[in-house]
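pasting for ref. prot 1 ->
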Amino acid sequence: MNPEITLKLERWLSQCQRTTTKYQLVQILQSISKSMEMDYYLMCVVSPQQLRSSELFIVENYPSDWMKYYFEKNLKFNDPVVLYTENAITPLFWQNANIVATTNPKADPSIMHRAEDAGLIDGITIPIRGMFGEFGLISLASKHLIDYDKLIQMNQILLTLSPYLYEASTRIKLNQTSSVQKIELTEREKECMEWISEGKTAWETAQILNISERTVNFHVNNVIDKVGASNRQHAVAKILISGVLKPVI
């Protein structure tokens, strides 16, 4: 990596750590795109609310006609790039996107051709994985085919920047009083819910934790109220999605 890019990378990292508004994030993404001689950028973070609902945070400068068409036709369900990022952590060069279609029957390669018609000829996408169950992507795209050496350079830069950009988006959502609130549970509430999530009854959980069944039900009901769930199974689903409960390492 040449010294000029290294200096820019240091500046972008510093800016990400200070970012608290969407405008500031846009400025960073614009600067990255311009320095990489890319025409377009898109950053999208999906924050699950429940299994069937989520909140979308998106910053982009893609062609407006394409974005309108994309969402009207619900292309995300068959987009090879989106499908790839749902189950991957490594970058995707768009030149290899057709490979996704051979491994995922939902992927529609024609979406990439329609994107090309809209001016999105080539690009790179970095998957995002968040701390509280979020997932998403960061893409840089060009109106022209991208040289492979340049793709390698962008790959290095975006892999370094993506966690910082994600954390910036998290601060922005918190500052906007997002409906996605971090769920705070006491240690005892976590212990009870961990065993409930394993299929244990309140009585069995009480025996394991050496507390009364009444105490277990008290903590479980507190969790149900905190997360706005309708029952304990619903509460388990919500706290698993939020990342509050994590597998024991």
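and prot 2 ->
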Amino acid sequence: MTTEAMLEFARDIDRNGVTYLRGYAGALVEFAQFCIENGISCYPKICSVVSNPIDAIGRRIIQEGLHCDAFDVYGSNECQNMAHECAQSEHNLHVLSDLRHLEILDEQQQPIEDESEGVVYITSFTNFIMPLIRYRQGDRTNWIKKTCKCGLPFPLIHRIKGRESNWLVDKNGQKVFAVTSPFFDVPNFINGYQYVVHAPGKVTIKINPNKKNPDFEKGIEYIKDSYSKQYGNRFDFTYEIVDSIPHDDGKLRIIVFEK
């Protein structure tokens, strides 16, 4: 989005008394960051985020820039909305089980009944033109085996942890799911991050620090130390401090591969 487009968007929100925003994670976070940096006041009451799970960093930026909470909507082009985040369930999501039959399967395509992580498969009850039955979404999550405080009967899943494609390959050719928890541990220090894969075991981690936090360098050191302890010599990580992490038409790409 251009500066002019975001200024006009902010004016439209104020002029029309907009209370609900729904958009791609990358676009909403970029707009919220723009409001913070330019002292623009926008006050919608709620943001629904699609295309990527909203993480602790994105939530902080939206809360600071748009002065409202952000809620995940889990969906896809093939099946539309499948689950919505509940305000009373620590960022877990209610499956829309009256519209979709969601399963979490293991590597042998057997249903997982406990809280172990697996791959999402979807059967839609509303697509009468091109039925999708046990369609492999490729996203990873797990069941939350408890009753939600809100009282709704819909089952709970953990926030989507990523896609099957979000793997790094170490020097020995072993797959490692891209671990982002060090960034979630220090959301107030970081505005964004991205892995750039050059070759097996060779990865650049781009970090966009929150320079409004005077201790942001401590957050960067924590991240570097965490990856060193967790992976040891399996990867050669280099770190690049950047002013922004570009999104791909509104989608945030955690992993990109060097061309």
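The two ends are 25 Å apart (CA to CA).
The chain is about 25% helix and 35% strand.
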